[in-house]
Amino acid sequence: MNNQNKEKIGIKFVTLIGVIIFLMIPIMFIADLIDERSSIQQQVQQEIAKSSSDEQRLIGPFLYIEYEREVTRNQETKTIKNKAFVLPDTLKVHAKLDTFEKYRSIYKATLYRSINTISGEFSVAHLNELEADKVLSVNLVFGIQDIRGIGLDSVLKVANKEVDMLPGTLLTSIKEGIHAPISVSALSQETLAFSADLHLQGMMRLAVSPLGSETHVSMSANWPHPSFEGEYLPLSSDISDEAFTARWQASYFSTNMQSIFTSCVMRNECTELMNRTMGVALVDPVDHYLKSHRAINYALLVILLVMASFFLLELVRSEPIHPVQYGFVGFTLAIFYLLLISLSEHLGFGFAYVISTLSATGLLGWYVAGVLNNAKLGVYFSLGLAMLYSLLYGMLGAEDYALLMGSLMCFIVLSLVMILTRKVNWYGSAQQSVSKTTCEIDHAQGSKT
Fold this sequence. Notes:
The chain has eleven helices and 16 strands. By secondary structure, it is an alpha+beta fold. It has two domains: 2-41 and 289-448, no CATH class; 55-284, Immunoglobulin-like. It starts with a helix and ends with a helix. Pfam families: CreD.
């Protein structure tokens, strides 16, 4: 008889494992659905960027000088055109961002309008030797990633005189931006000061390239969830519930910007220049697709814990539960994630999580109470499942501690299972279940006769 009991428990375990594996099929479909909806949101954001303005990156300002010089070769003198670039000695940038949102259907994108106060000076003493009649043009150039975001109120001054800004950079390596022609006589000074109030509209990110021998950058915004990006972290930052401020500083020794900039404008090797930035990304803290994806990563753990609890109830109650009933419980757990993603698109992640949790726990509590003919066990099952979902929600909010919380939860659950079942006679439970079922059948047959 013991061999029969072993076989029955073994078959039950194999069947249960098969049900769990089968349940991973809808879980994978739902995970793919989350990825698909997230991709649609990214496409919508790109479409909004195409119709307004995209992420912004400031490169500059810098001086672009075209001049002629005479070269003698083989007793033949030729006049050739040459160009020179001058990076600022000091560069100060303060960006004040004001965020707003644009919607298309149920999808949204975070945009900003920024007032960028820029100042600094160039050392041009080494250019004094250039003859004025040999200088073809002098331009102050800004590289701007998306010039559609430039506001009409932008002002640029050189040597305390306002200059006109024209579209384009005159360069093939840095195509997007603006340039301002300035007088050749400006090169006769020791230093050349500049200042600008640059109004920009952008989406999600703003970055600054530290072109100066000494660069100071500060940013502030009415956004409480900044993600500091680039190759330079801020020296200091202050993040509150409503806004943030941050400050960066870099020197020529830490940036090697002269060499990197020369590689870009002379050899069109600009990858390193584009990456050598300091800036911020405006992270959406309620990205329900990201949180839903994190939640479904724990789907297997939730299914295992719930199925194990269901199986323990079967053993303790000595009432056989059909694999189809296990399947119904598992499908309810899978539908939880489908409800979560669909509701969060309209109600927000937190409210959607509460509704999905109440729906799943209420349905499963009612179902377990009916299967086991015990309303109290149904209530306990619902409360336990609600507690499990509450712990999962806490893990989603504490991403840095998710692994620790998950490990502790698994250990605690395993400890509880071992404590509750330490006196269970597994063979006896199976035998008791079989005997009870046999008695019920015999009683039914006796009633018919």
